[in-house]
Write a structure and sequence with these properties.
Helices cover about 30% and strands about 30% of the residues. The chain is α+β, with helices and mostly antiparallel strands and about 550 residues long. It has four domains: about 220 residues, no CATH class; about 100 residues, no CATH class; about 80 residues, Immunoglobulins (Immunoglobulin-like, Sandwich); about 120 residues, no CATH class. The strands form seven sheets. Strands 20, 21, 23, 24 and 25 form a five-stranded antiparallel β-sheet that branches. A four-stranded antiparallel β-sheet has the order 4-3-7-8, with no helix packed on it. The longest helix has about 40 residues. The chain is elongated.
Length: about 550
């Protein structure tokens, strides 16, 4: 492994190698075989990313050499980078062919992606170990080739005078006595490289060993390319070959009737340099040298005019060949205008307790970007069919607070007092007309309607809540101080036949309402308290 600092990817590969070695020392079960397959797949992904990254580094090196007018020292470094890539690719490809040969020899791949011969130990041993004496497997030659590659890379370090920037690489194919993991293990320390890694070993574990070696090679290649990339340059020439028009406004918020002020200028950048840009610690997309920032504006406090000054910061990292990244800080300011919450309702001044109050809450300033969500204190909320339409059911008799957000960003809150539902008026009607309780009736009618009529303002505001029905009561025919006859009723449409024939002039029909129900917007019913003082209707008979 190379000296100096390791990248996170290299540290991950090292950790996965230790896990691999630990698993190899065990008598593996089917469950562990699955872990080997997962480990091999992870190593394959890491290998692909490292190879792709090294390809990008070579492109950067090649481009930097061209942009710096093909200085002799830079051209030599480019040649070194190309030699490193070729040598490492040859070995990685050879390991890839060995892996394919092993997979084919053990039955290939199942439809689900698993290996048919994952448990096979014999074919792996035959291929890589042989009999260890007269017939030697490919593992013995593989050791020489792997360590030979390390020797070649170390020679490149010497020839290119890179020794001050990177340490020499250590051999990557070790016998048991040389491997720090196994050199104190009496069962493993006397094994050679081929036996240690491929004898009495399931095929999938051997596959993972080969993939790990590919990763080691790719890591060495990446480390060398990093050093070469950093050594490029000297007197760096940056050619600004792209020019764009830009502007900077004094304020992004302008009131009608006031002046808008801005500055126009040109910005030039070098298309050969690919800057990376971050905003609030996260990378942003860069196109044609321009990074675009987009975030949801918010504020917690506003001035008396409803504005809140905010700022943002970003960083631009410009890669200078041979010099590393130059960091350019960027700061911006903007103003958040407090959005006005517009509430429309049939009765917007207050909400009725335990009723479905229809509200239409909009924030005109947000326009089409308004995607509201609501929460409430002291009430439950039912979302309506259209944007901003909700039904609020107060569960407290004090005050309801409704919090308004759009796409998760808080906009503000609106508060409403809560009023009790007004009691309905109890009335008696004959032929659809209210009975005059002073004049009475000429004779007892055949039927009479006993109704609970809602408060007019309540009925106008919440018609679905203002539905009442009388469900229990008692009617008495009284003469003087005596009760002539009493009957009960369970609906508002009462048949007076049982007392009609016994009524005389001067009698009284006394109606006592005992129970009234109200139906709400959910079609559920609730009891309406009926005070004794207002529950009796007296009708004289003339």
């Amino acid at each position: 492994m190379a000296g100096g600092k390791e990248t996170p990817r290299q540290k991950l590969i090292g950790l996965m190698y230790l896990v691999l070695l630990a698993l190899l020392a065990l008598q593996v079960s089917s469950a562990i075989l699955e872990k080997f397959q997962f480990l091999n797949a992870s190593l394959e992904n890491t290998l692909a990313e490292t190879i792709k990254s090294s390809g990008e580094k070579e492109k950067i090196i090649r481009k930097a050499v061209e942009d710096n007018r093909n200085k002799a020292s830079d051209v030599a470094l480019l040649k070194t980078a190309e030699d490193v890539r070729v040598k490492c690719k040859v070995m990685i490809d050879e390991l890839g062919k060995m892996k394919k040969k092993l997979i084919d020899a053990t039955g290939g791949v199942e439809e689900n992606g698993s290996y048919k011969g994952a448990k096979d130990e014999d074919k792996l041993a035959q291929m890589m170990v042989g009999d260890g004496a007269t017939v030697k497997g490919e593992g013995f030659a593989l050791k020489d080739k792997l360590n030979g590659l390390v020797t070649d890379l170390n020679s490149i370090i010497d020839k290119a005078n890179l020794g001050s920037d990177i340490s020499k690489f250590a051999p990557i194919a070790l016998d048991g006595k040389d491997d720090p993991v196994f050199q104190k293990n009496p069962d493993q320390k006397n094994k050679n490289f081929a036996e240690l890694n491929f004898q009495s070993t399931p095929m999938i574990a051997g596959l993972a060993v080969m993939t790990e070696k590919q990763n080691k090679i790719a890591s060495m290649e990446s480390a060398l390319l990093n050093v070469i990339k950093e050594k490029l340059g000297g007197d760096v020439v940056i050619k600004a070959d792209k020019v764009v028009g830009m502007y900077r406004a004094n304020s992004s918020v302008v009131a009608a009737g006031t002046d808008y002020e801005a500055e126009m200028f040109i910005a030039a950048y070098a298309s050969n340099l690919t800057p990376t840009m971050t905003f609030r610690g996260a990378s942003i997309k860069v196109e044609n040298g321009v990074g675009k920032i987009k975030f949801r504006a918010s504020a917690t406090t506003y001035d008396k005019e409803g504005n809140s000054k905010q700022n943002w910061e970003g960083k631009i990292a410009v890669p200078i060949p041979g010099k590393g990244d130059t960091i350019i800080p960027v700061k911006g300011e903007y103003i958040v205008a407090k959005p006005v919450i517009d509430v429309k309702s049939a009765s917007v001044s207050a909400l009725y307790f335990n009723c479905g109050n229809d509200l239409n809450i909009q924030v005109p300033a947000l326009g089409a970007s308004y995607k509201p969500s609501f929460s409430a204190s002291g009430a439950t909320i039912v979302n309506g069919a259209e944007k901003g339409m909700i039904i609020v059911v107060p569960t407290t008799k004090e005050k309801v607070s409704i919090n308004v957000s759009s796409e998760g960003s808080a906009i503000g809150k609106v508060e409403f007092p809560v009023r009790a539902v007004p009691r309905p008026a109890l009335v008696a009607k004959v032929n659809g007309q209210p009975v005059d309780q002073k004049r009475g009736v000429l004779q007892v009618p055949q039927t009479i309607m006993v109704l609970a009529e809602p408060d007019p303002a309540f009925a106008a505001a919440l018609p679905k809540e203002a539905r009442y029905g009388v469900t229990d009561g008692e009617i008495t025919l009284a003469r003087g101080k005596r009760e002539v006859k009493t009957m009960n009723f369970s609906s508002g449409n009462v048949n007076l036949g049982p007392i009609r024939g016994e009524a005389q002039s001067g009698d009284r029909i006394i109606i006592q309402v005992k129970k009234v129900l109200r139906k709400n917007f959910r079609e559920a019913t609730e009891d309406v308290p009926v005070p004794t003082s207002s529950s009796i209707i007296t009708i004289p008979v003339q």
